Amino acid sequence: MDRILGGTPERSNGALTIVALALEAGVPRNALTQRHTDLKAEFYDKVRARGGMLDSERRLRQQVRRLKELRAADAQEIARLTADVEALVGALHQATMENSHLRHQLADRHAVVRVLPTQAPLGR
Asked: Please, which domain of life does this record's source organism belong to (predicted)?
């Protein structure tokens, strides 16, 4: 424990984790997490007392920060898509109403339906 906390690990990468502590001590990880929880607690207390942050906590904080950024970006995209859906629903409703109106005109033999001229494609 002292080697890791002192920054001079011999068997591990020196990370402030239980895995590195177990490697440094030459014992299986579950020995610290299940049988010697007092050593695990002591290690974490010493890391916190030094003002340091556990590597796992640092990684989790970075991940939380990244996920918050992604969530904000997703919220913006959802707002944009919601506006798009509303516009598309309006356009669909208008097209449906126009289609219905044209069908009624077509069914009414007395109504005059004119075919509008189309424009020739550009570049031909």
From this structure: Bacteria
Asked whether residue 70 falls in the same domain as residue 39, the answer is no
Q: For residue 19, which of 40, 38, 2, 3 has the smallest C-alpha distance?
A: 40
78 domain-assigned: yes
Round to whole Å and give the CA distance between 21 and 92.
64
Residue range(s) defining the domain that contains residue 20: 2-52
pLDDT (tens digit per residue) in 25-68 = 888 888 878 888 888 888 888 888 877 667 777 888 899 999 99
Task: State both tokens at 25.
Answer: 């001590």
The packing angle between helices 37-49 and 18-25, to 10°, is 120
